[in-house]
## 1
Amino acid sequence: MRTPAGLQPLIDDGVIDEVMRPLKSGKEASVYVVRVGEEIRCAKVYKDMAQRSFQQRVQYQEGRKVRGSRQARAIGKATKFGRKEQEAAWKNTEVDALYQLVDAGVRVPQPHGFFNGVLVMELVVDADGHSAPRLGEVELSPLEARGFHRFLVHQVQKMLCIGLVHGDLSEYNVLVAPDGPVVIDFPQVVSAAGNNAARRMLQRDVNNLTLSLGRFAPELLSTHYAEEMWALYEAGELRPDSELTGEFEFDESVADLDSVQLAIRDAREEALIRQQGREAAEQDD
């Protein structure tokens, strides 16, 4: 295939040897299957963020660090330089998060470097060596769904233990490899301690997974892992090996149930929006 402009510098520098085919394309980035020596990997080429995208990302920017005060002021004023810095920070966030998550034992694609704005990483494949399907594309038995849910909640737990919340986790950001789920797409990851919306994002992430897997194992819909996890995190008692039960006693005096119901509603609405966007993208293709 014709080499995309964003990947030509990597071929010129010997970082990759061949672009084999496109893997997927979205509003954030285009991903290609590439060959590096004898290994097959993927390369994520980030797209420039339009003004509308900046507005949508305001809630994710809170708590993120930038290189200096000049960059912070420029980003805050949304100047041309500021948008360029914000764009760079957005790309670097995913790269930095991936390396942290690998070190923490979270099941994510192994990163292999960040070159000229392109992230090269492991290609997650199925048992036949083809690109692994998304969680929303597979049929599961109740036993498998419960196992996947337990595993994915534990990944969220390990993320929170290092102070990170995915922020956009759903059945579309989980790939199913032969040895289990792999969590992907981290440009919107947020700081659990530095972002005021982190708790709600955590609830939304877990609720998205629960709603998806609850189709196969309905008893999962009555669990409250996000609330239990966050309570332990706030108390400084959450550990990667903490045993979670999925049970949580809500304090109705502060109307916590309202926030949970709102998070569930948001999760359902966002799942519908993602599905509609995906169908529209497939039609465009």
## 2
Amino acid sequence: MDRITSIEIFVRAVELGSFAAVAEERDISAQMVGKHIHGLETSLGVKLLAKSTRFQALTTAGEQFHLRCINILSELKAAQEDIYLDLNEPMGKLKIYCGVNLGISLLSPLLGKFIQQYPQLEIDLTLDNNPPDIYRDGYDLIFHDRIEGYEFLVGHQICSYDMVACATPEYLQQHGIPLEPKALEHHQCLRHTTAYHAHRWCFKNAAGDYFSPRISSRFTINSGQAMLAAAMEGTGITIQPYFQVQAALDSGELVQVLTDYQLPKIELFMLYKPSLRQTSRLTLLNDFLQRELNNQLNIKY
């Protein structure tokens, strides 16, 4: 059997947790998956997986071999893609995960622009607010506002962007304009279901003092865009990325409040599998996003 194929199957069996999952992914039988792994074990003279009817686990030798295999596949992919990088022509597929709001507002248009430049590249973009399982779902790359919990991935901060609190003129005329963060306790503040500390918004004044009023809301939403749509109907005060509401602020449809205070910037990280390191797909996408985001209004590195 082809040794590289066997190594790929072994690595996926570890990542997916079963022969059946690998068999379905590769459209082969579970018995064939077993033959590939048994062939590796025979050639190495050690057991790689301790299997029973109820669980599958790496042996000590299997753990060491698995780490080496990841490096082998990473180097092989990088070596293959170096050719395409020299030709400035990335090939293959990138399966990408991103949150719904950021994906619709910012990332999807940029990826659409990027893929037009490289006709041999394919992008599969999933927008979801639920935490991704990069190995189970087969993601190559995720965009997230934190790196905690993803220490097994390689990544870096790709940009940060400003957040603003705003509402419609009609809402503010009816309920009053908050002049300090504590005043928000008496307003309807639209909350994001998945945001950290969603019941508290943190503001900082020019002196560096922090204020975290306890907000209340009868409307909690798991989508930033849906929250913005509700705010545009005069439902309450919302916190939004500045780049998403700039047009509405300029037209007067929304009014920024608490302008003497700052909200924490949101950091955006690009996280990817070690096997993608230095590949043409990742290198060119990273350079493209750095350039494009740098040109976006009020998005700074």
## 3
Amino acid sequence: MTDISEDAAQKYRIPVIEQMVEVFALLERTPEGATIRDVVKAVRLSRTTVYRMLNTLSAYDFVHRSPAGSYTLGRRLLTLAAHVAPTVASYDLLAIAQPHLNKISELLGEGSKLTLPSGDNILVVASAQGHGQYALSATAGQRLPFHAGAAGKILLAFSLQEDIERRLTKLERFTNQTITDPKQMLEELAQIRKQNWARDMGEQMSGVHAIAAPVRDHQDTVIAAVSVPFVTGVDEKRVADIKQAVIAAAQSITSDIRSATPAAPAAGLATEKPAPKRSAQKTVANPKQR
């Protein structure tokens, strides 16, 4: 078959699919959610047509409608992304990570998850359920804050400096343990970069702690975080066991990524390019280890 000319490629496009792609692009840019009015303005179609399009996509979980009526990208897209062929991406991150998540949850009896940066939030893209009596579960598709939680702090610590500064301008308080002071957060992030792991001390949800460690690509760039949440009150030996298992799992995923043949400089499913391993951010003071 001969190559299709550029004119022919333009001629044989399907308008409704192009409009759907525009909807996905809009929702990608607005992780907090877009209203029907926003979509109508973006794709320049009637409100009735947009409603029917969103209703159809929602039925197949390609978009999600909140109780307030705003739309975000749906979980079905995670399933599709997990099956991107290795010839398209340099490696299949979810396929590499899932066995390690399963292993860590089987070993600890706790739930585990893999998280990526996604706009102004972090996104859980894979998880494994724990079998312990008090195991906490995580679901792919959850969006969580950068500054409150072990995985978020890992991804924030290794973000570009300008992204760190921008995200520190608004630190929402979720619990009494949430770090809302930018100076204190900078100290926390410096400590995380130094020790290469993070701990959540109930900063996102009261009574829930977590340990997280970074996953790196061929260029030693942090592209994801492995984390295990657990209920507060466990002894420090148990915490040490969780930390050791999380760090080992993150290192194993990193090793498998580096063993894959890189086809391009893109970092798998990562949605933004984090900073290299070390940041130029100076530590204000020696922070208390978390």
## 4
Amino acid sequence: MAEQTNPIIYVASDSAGETGEAVVRAVMVQFYPQQVDMRIVPFLENRAGIDKLVQTAKQRDGIIVFTLVIPELRDYLVEQAIRYQLAYIDLLGPIIGSLEKKLQQESRHQPGMIHPLDEDYFKKVEAVEFAVKYDDGRDFSGVLQADIVLVGVSRTSKTPLSMYLAHKKFKVANVPLVPEIQPPEQLFTVSKKKIVGLRIDPEKLNVIRSERLKMLGLPQNATYANVERINKELEYANNIMKRLDCTVIDVSNKAVEETASLIIEWFQGR
């Protein structure tokens, strides 16, 4: 019996593709636990690029979701998708068309306008670069420079949270808490007001780590997903968080966006 594979969604754009990616991710939450393989196809500039995309999608029986603002490219992609009987979703075309009619004004049809190169944009880029540099305890000096410091055991969404918050212009460093490794001294010298501890239910963590092992093709009985090991890590992490006297959020049943919203709300309300 053939192994069932996840549906493939190609997110095509004449810009970076972030809008389409965000929409698809938001929609797929409604189909949990169904997973999809998402392939970003950015900066489509001509028909040749569209032809390549269509042929690839046809071979893989994929769905094309696109955010093309250049009318000629948008029309050509729709034409080719219909020709090859491909499922497609135009995210921006209907909205732009309706607004042009209502406003009696033609849109600019200019890709990439969602990211003007202003001070706000460069702050976001700087925050993303910061999150990458100081991710998962790679360089503990980032703890002293960060706006927010996340602490928690492995698989509590520290990295996704760091990147999400970076896109909101927060400089985030995250520190893994492991019983065998002493936390960096810097962690105990910064203000507790900028530290957020991430707590998780042991059973939930067991499921997440087991799935991670499965995805990596590793044995399910590995120590990483062992219940006793998990309880030991969580107890250790809780003790560290108590020492830090920091804000603690239970991420057991929260999406990254929900946890990030709580953190942002807390920091902005201080």
